Amino acid sequence: MSSFLYRSNPQAHFAIKCLLMLISMHMATLAAANFYQNADITWGDERAKILNGGRDLTLSLDKASGSGFQSKNEYLFGRFDMQLKLVPGNSAGTVTTFYLSSQGAGHDEIDFEFLGNSSGSPYTIHTNVYARGKGDKEQQFQLWFDPTTSFHTYSIVWNPQRIIFLVDNSPIRVFNNHESIGVPFPKSQHMRVYASLWNADDWATQGGRVKTDWTKAPFTANYRNFNINGCAKSSSCQSSSTSTSSSSKEEWRTHELDAAGRNRLRWVQAKHMVYNYCSDKQRFASSVPAECKRSRFL
Ligand SMILES: *[C@@H]1O[C@H](CO)[C@@H](O)[C@H](O)[C@H]1NC(C)=O
């Protein structure tokens, strides 16, 4: 039947092909940003809610519990985007997270954590990288906007050469693969995406001095447009496969900073970085981590 169509009516064939393409494009977009398809709520019972047909997800925290979700799939490299609107007002003591982690001993992890603060004081964006169970690579930032009034996009790009943390597409941190000088880099364990909202008032805000104000509970964080372009465990995707079609979806495989990206990173690190493990002389008095002796970004 279809071969008859092909031969007899090329125009009809073309129209059908376009229609199929449109349908599959539409489905791909839906699949890319739908919490029903991408995520499982893992704890917190009714405190975690998927809304608006899968487009939005809210997590909340009260005195009894926080809540969280994880991606259905595990990935080895990819680009992971999440839009987030953080707990407004007095968010002291709360921690909102969006991170990647493998399971078991010697785990790998790439973290975004949003440490709440008292009303009017800025959130701290905490980042860290663990490879084979070892972390201690923290950098912290304060944002150039209020992250509680509207959605902003937080992204992790992870490929065999580097990890890039982005906020609204501005790189804020690059962690390069320095295996050549003996620094472990996460590149052989699949990682899942996790997100959570929980109480950490023993340490999170101003070193634990400011506690969660439970009269303001429940606290709510909003997630939206959870987008993954990555190499999923359940797919045939291989990190070594170099597809010849230069799809923009595969851009994460070789993502690196161009001149504009390096300028933007320098600006963020000069103006908005509030902690850098590489310059913590007290902590690493005897031996500054090897990668810190290399250029910070290049
Ligand atoms: C909260 O605000 C204080 C005062 O501006 C600041 O020192 C601190 O770094 C902020 N963040 C956290 C998580 O305490």
TrEMBL record:
<feature type="signal peptide">
    <location>
        <begin position="1"/>
        <end position="33"/>
    </location>
</feature>
<dbReference type="GO" id="GO:0048046">
    <property type="term" value="C:apoplast"/>
</dbReference>
<feature type="active site" description="Nucleophile">
    <location>
        <position position="109"/>
    </location>
</feature>
<dbReference type="InterPro" id="IPR000757">
    <property type="entry name" value="Beta-glucanase-like"/>
</dbReference>
<dbReference type="GO" id="GO:0004553">
    <property type="term" value="F:hydrolase activity, hydrolyzing O-glycosyl compounds"/>
</dbReference>
<dbReference type="InterPro" id="IPR013320">
    <property type="entry name" value="ConA-like_dom_sf"/>
</dbReference>
<protein>
    <recommendedName>
        <fullName>Xyloglucan endotransglucosylase/hydrolase</fullName>
        <ecNumber>2.4.1.207</ecNumber>
    </recommendedName>
</protein>
<keyword id="KW-0378">Hydrolase</keyword>
<keyword id="KW-0808">Transferase</keyword>
<keyword id="KW-0325">Glycoprotein</keyword>
<feature type="glycosylation site" description="N-linked (GlcNAc...) asparagine">
    <location>
        <position position="117"/>
    </location>
</feature>
<keyword id="KW-1015">Disulfide bond</keyword>
<dbReference type="GO" id="GO:0071555">
    <property type="term" value="P:cell wall organization"/>
</dbReference>
<dbReference type="Pfam" id="PF06955">
    <property type="entry name" value="XET_C"/>
</dbReference>
<dbReference type="InterPro" id="IPR008264">
    <property type="entry name" value="Beta_glucanase"/>
</dbReference>
<keyword id="KW-0052">Apoplast</keyword>
<feature type="compositionally biased region" description="Low complexity">
    <location>
        <begin position="234"/>
        <end position="247"/>
    </location>
</feature>
<dbReference type="InterPro" id="IPR010713">
    <property type="entry name" value="XET_C"/>
</dbReference>
<keyword id="KW-0961">Cell wall biogenesis/degradation</keyword>
<dbReference type="Pfam" id="PF00722">
    <property type="entry name" value="Glyco_hydro_16"/>
</dbReference>
<keyword id="KW-0732">Signal</keyword>
<keyword id="KW-0326">Glycosidase</keyword>
<feature type="region of interest" description="Disordered">
    <location>
        <begin position="234"/>
        <end position="254"/>
    </location>
</feature>
<comment type="function">
    <text>Catalyzes xyloglucan endohydrolysis (XEH) and/or endotransglycosylation (XET). Cleaves and religates xyloglucan polymers, an essential constituent of the primary cell wall, and thereby participates in cell wall construction of growing tissues.</text>
</comment>
<dbReference type="InterPro" id="IPR008263">
    <property type="entry name" value="GH16_AS"/>
</dbReference>
<dbReference type="InterPro" id="IPR016455">
    <property type="entry name" value="XTH"/>
</dbReference>
<dbReference type="GO" id="GO:0010411">
    <property type="term" value="P:xyloglucan metabolic process"/>
</dbReference>
<comment type="similarity">
    <text>Belongs to the glycosyl hydrolase 16 family.</text>
</comment>
<feature type="active site" description="Proton donor">
    <location>
        <position position="113"/>
    </location>
</feature>
<dbReference type="InterPro" id="IPR044791">
    <property type="entry name" value="Beta-glucanase/XTH"/>
</dbReference>
<feature type="domain" description="GH16">
    <location>
        <begin position="2"/>
        <end position="223"/>
    </location>
</feature>
<dbReference type="GO" id="GO:0042546">
    <property type="term" value="P:cell wall biogenesis"/>
</dbReference>
<keyword id="KW-0964">Secreted</keyword>
<keyword id="KW-0134">Cell wall</keyword>
<dbReference type="GO" id="GO:0016762">
    <property type="term" value="F:xyloglucan:xyloglucosyl transferase activity"/>
</dbReference>
